[in-house]
Amino acid sequence: MGVKFGSIFLPLFISRGGVKFYMCGEAVSVVHSDPRCIIVRVCQTKADFYIVSAHAPYAKCKINSANASSDPSCIWWRELGRIVQNVCLPSVPLIMGINGNYKQK
After folding, report:
1. Which of 1, 37, 69, 73 could staple 25 via S-S, CB 3.0–4.6 A?
2. Dist. CA 65–CA 73, nearest whole Å
3. Is the pLDDT at 64 greater than 60, yes or no?
């Protein structure tokens, strides 16, 4: 398994204790996906973990809003937590990368 950049193919690997373990495509499976979140599980002999990549709605976004008084970003964060709890086993490590769309006042 690897990532292709133009004509260059870069292998993906995990390093444990200074030893590199290359991942094969069969070791990675998508366990959840929607327009704002993808969760994959990497499961092979030397490694077992989840990777979450998510993109929160911006503060004034109206998506997922049940009514005008609902804060869509709060709804999204609760929903993300629910999805992670339902999809990921608590005993398996989790790596999260989230664009939280937070704007400091």
Report:
1. 1
2. 9
3. no
